[in-house]
Amino acid sequence: MKHTHLAILLLAGTLNAAAQTPIGGTVVYTMTTTYNFEPTGNDEWDAYARTLPTEGKFEKVLYFTAEASLYDVSSLEKEATSGLQEKTEFFASYGKPPKPALKSLYIDYQEESKVSLQEFMTREFLVESPLDNKGWKLDPTRKKIGEYVCMKATMTLKGDTVTAWFAPEIPVPAGPAEYYGLPGVVLAVERLGETVLLATSIDLSPPPAELLVKPENGKKTSPEAFDRIVEEKVEEFKKNGSGKSDYYRK
After folding, report:
1. Rounded Cα gap, residues 237 and 72, in angstroms
2. What are the residues facing 161 on neighbouring strands?
3. What is the rounded CA–CA span in Å between residue 114 and residue 180?
4. Quick check: 187 and 145 in contact, CB under 8 A?
5. pTM above 0.85, yes or no
6. What is the mean pLDDT of residues 12-38?
7. Which of 53, 153, 176, 237 has minimal CB crowding within 10 Å?
8. Confidence bin at 48 (pLDDT 50/70/90)
C-alpha cells in the first residue's frame, strides 16, 4: 500500500512537471548480451564456438519528449557491422528456434499507444497495441547513475525478476525496450542479477523532430496475430529439425 501511494505521488509530480516545463532528450545505452553456446555434436563447430566471445555489447538510443519516445538502435550500430559479431550471433542461435528481434519501439503517451518494429525470420512487422500496465513495484532504494539519483523498481517478466533504475528528475515515463511506465526515465536495467542496459550518455536537449518518428516500414499486425506467426514458425522449425523453413523463401 505504501508503494502504491508513493507511485501515485511520483506520477502526479511527473505529470505536473511535464505539463509546466517542455522536456525532451536523448539517452544512449550500452546493452550487454550474454551468448550461450550449446553443443551441436559437430566437434569442429563446437571447437570454433569456444573461441568466440561469450558477451556482446551494443549501443542503443532513446529519444523522448513529454508526448512520445522512440527506442532504436543507434546510428553508430547501423553503420558499423562486425564480422566476428555476426559469426558469434550465428553460432549462438544455431539449432535454436527462431525468435523475434526488437528493432524499435515508439510510444505515444498522449494516445496511450505503442508501435514496435519486430524483425522475425528476415521479415519486419509493425505490432500496434495500447500501452500496458507493467506492474512495477517501487522500492525506496536509491543509487546514482551519472549525475542523477535514481530510484529502484522491480517487476516479473517471463518468469525473471527485472530491476529498473529511473530518474525522477527527468519526469517522462520512457525507457529502453519494454522497460517503461515509471515516473522518470529508466537509466539502467538489471536482469538475473546482471546489468543488461546502462545509460552512458544523457542529453536533455529536445531531440530533432526527424529522429523521433513512428516506424512505418513493415507489415502491420496485432500482438495476437504476431504471436501466432511466431508460434507457427517455431513449431515448423521443430518439425523440420534442421532449422530450415519455407518461410525464408516466401
Report:
1. 29
2. 156
3. 11
4. yes
5. no
6. 70
7. 53
8. confident
Side chain identity at residue 180, one-letter code:
Y
| Amino acid, single-letter form, for residue 67 | E
In order of 60, 126, 145, 193, 198, the CA distances from 186 in angstroms are 13, 24, 10, 17, 9
Residue with the bigger pLDDT between 13 and 124: it is 124
Q: Cβ atoms within 10 A of the Cβ of 84, count?
A: 10
pLDDT of 181 reads 95
